[in-house]
Structure formats: C-alpha cells, structure tokens
Amino acid sequence: MKLDIKDITKLLPHRPPMLLIDEIYDIKNYSGTASVSVRKDSFFVIGHFPGQPIMPGVLIVEAFGQAAAAITAHSLDKSYYENKLVFLMGVEKAKFRNPVIPDCKLILKIESIRSHGKVWKYQGEAFVNEIKMAEAIWSATIVDKK
Question: Which parts of the chain are beta strand (E)?
C-alpha cells in the first residue's frame, strides 16, 4: 500500500509548507515507511544555516510525528478517526547522528510500539542513502476536533 501527497492531505490537517511528508509506503500493523524531500528551497533550509544548510532536528521529529499520525489514521477504522486529530504528547528520546543536508530524500521508518486507548507510542529511524541520520521515541494522542 502506498499513500501519495493527495492521500496524506486527506488524513492530516497539515498543509505546505508545514506538511513535510511526500509519500508513505509499506504500511502494516500501524507501522510504515515515509519519505521527505529535503530541497535547497525548503522553507526551513533558507535560514538554517546560510552557507551550510541542514534540516533542523525539531523538524525531523515533526516529520516522524506526521508520518506516524498518517499511518495510524490510515490504519484505523474511518468512522473512529473521522473528526479527530493526532497531537504530539512527548518526545522521550531523540538522537541526531548526522546532519540532513539538502538535496536529499529522508526516509523515515516508523513503528508503533503500543497503544492504550487514545494514547500511542512510536519509534522511528531516519536515513539518507541507508545512513542513519536520527532516531526518536515519542507519544501522541488522538483527540476530537474542536
């Protein structure tokens, strides 16, 4: 199963420039793989850092969260997820091993660790050309839209 940008915008409230995920694939058991195109003209690259641009670590974590939310929304029964949002609750661990330099494709491998009601826990790893760039463990909750 593969979700393109059109499918992702049906699952997430994010819109450009804050929608970071380009596609999601290999979805199974609330886990999957997502890709992020990190370009020289990406909004976050222009000022971070001039002359030596990198993708900010906080946006890598945001991309992890977006991918996990879309994977979960896609995997849940539509009637359950309708009129809901997924909010980040906390980041327990995040490690940034290498800078993510444009122009590249950042690959995010997302795995659901567990869920308890509306609270979910995930882990993810980010790669460029099969080199690990970052990893994180985070939790999120599903809430009603207000």
Answer: 2-3, 23-28, 31-38, 84-96, 104-116, 119-128, 131-144
